Amino acid sequence: MKLARDTGLLAWRYVHQLLRSPAWVAVGLSSPLLYLALFTPLLRGLPGVAGRSTGAVLDEFLPGILALLAFSSGIGPGFTVIFELQSGLVERLRVTPTARVALLAGPVVANVASMFVFDAILVAVGAAFGFALHPGLLVLGVLLALLAATVSAFSMSLALRSGGEIQGFAAIMNGLNLPVLLLGGVLLPLAIGPLWLRVLGHFDPLYYLVTAARGLAQDHMASAGTWHAFAVLTPLCALTLAWATRAYRSAVA
Asked: Disulfide engineering: 136 pairs with which of 5, 58, 146, 219, CB 3.0-4.6 Å?
């Protein structure tokens, strides 16, 4: 009960901080919307897409943007931890009776919840232009939550171990961001690339989510891509959360 209560309180604190920064919310939502508005027309010339309707193009492209949002939103909590370290908040938490695991779980839960709000807006906008709605999107929501929780826990723990050095943390996250997104096939499917690029993509967890997302958006819930995504993301999330929990317990012991 105490863990659930502390997690809820810290999750609400994180959401409250987010709502107090409307500019951050606007930027977080405008970026994926701009991808839809500016990148979707460029896809009409791709093999297998040319000549298809806007809705059919969105069926291929929007699932990748949802995966992109899950990944990029998970980076944000790490910067919050940096600011809390610099302000001394983490030091003050050492003397509170707050459950140590809740210090990690609260922001992770809040981040996943806020991601779902953004996802719902994106799906609603896409549906207005022909994006097909299927029950498979509910399964996709589980996979998106797994990735968002994994990246959130990783970024928060990395920030905690950085000791508040924002330059080093930002350099690591920026260095990971580009190859992960490109090899994930978020903007362009890796199927149109050379063999060596497709092989490298299989070492990127985001690739499995994007592949599953495109199948689930077409209601292919029992496809191999869906099972592969769960087989990769579930243990990865568990291992990352376990590592992050140990990092937090030692940091605020």
From this structure: 219
The Cα–Cα gap between 142 and 134 comes to 14
Indicate whether 50 pLDDT > 60: no
Angstrom CA distances, 65 to 175, 186, 206, stand at: 20, 7, 11
Radius of gyration of the chain (CA): 19
Weakest mean pLDDT among 5-19, 36-50, 150-164, 217-231: 36-50
Enter the tokens of residue 124. 């609603």
106, 163, 179, 249 from 6: Cα distances, Å: 8, 24, 36, 15
- Are 68 and 82 within 8 A, CB to CB? no
Sign of CA dihedral 199, 203, 205, 208: positive
How many residues are there in the chain? Answer: 253
**Backbone angles phi and psi of 150, in degrees to 5:** -65, -50
**Model pTM score:** 0.90
Cα distances (angstroms) measured from residue 188 to each of 57, 140, 184, 191, 216: 12, 19, 9, 9, 18
